[in-house]
Amino acid sequence: MKRWERCNIPLSSPRQRIALAIESGQKLLAGQLPFNGIPHKIGSYEATEGAQEIVRDREIFGLYEILLLNHFQFSHPFGGMGQYLELLTKLSAQYFSGEWIDATVIPDPQRFRRKMSWLDLFRIGILASVVLNDREGLRVIASWVDNEFSRDELDYSQADIDYYVALGKYINHGIMQKSIIDSLMNQRRKRPRFLIEILEAIDKKDGKQFVKVFTEYHKLFDKSECDKDSFLIFKNVNLNGSILWNIAKDRLDEMPIFPEGIMDRIITPQSLGLEK
Length: 276
What we know:
By secondary structure, the protein is mainly alpha-helical. The chain is 60% helix and 1% strand. Helix 3 runs antiparallel to helix 4 (82-97) and helix 8 crosses helix 9.
């Protein structure tokens, strides 16, 4: 049984989306879409703030969807995932280095940096780099949280944003910020509280606590975040859990084994065919 079948992803629902993901991925790799550079025109748009960001969104999300097709074991024509993962990490690091902003005709680059809707791309870039174990790419992406940015531009709760800031700082500086931990542990919202507890267990190399909280968070994901009826296949993968699982794999002395029902929604080197 394929992973998408075990996850009860209805093939009739996402079939069109899968076909679109394959088509956009093929165009991306064939150079028919703006790719790995600084385009001066996007359709009828000049190289403006919004258009530039849209292009990079498409590149990164397009490569991410290729990985998801493979993870859920849908039939696809892309072959091995290593090259796509490397490219996704490279493009994410380029995005968060911000060099393309300075090379683009943008009236106020600093304002643009503050107003970027970066969090979804941040999560994807962090996942790609930890799966690939690309420490330099991970450093560049994680360092974005040290910049000034507008929280009002992000479609996330303040507690969620605090968690991702804590995650970025932990990855880059190896420290858990007590003020953020205390704040998130007192949150009524379960997701950021669970996520910071998982990160804290990883930092303390506490395998038992990691298993306990990771399992609790996955139950929450399965109940309130996973959209099993959606034709958008990325809504069926536990992205937060995938990031933390891969960080734990690198840092815990002994990696716990989780049941298939959890791991079917966790992206790993094994699920992408990079390791046996």
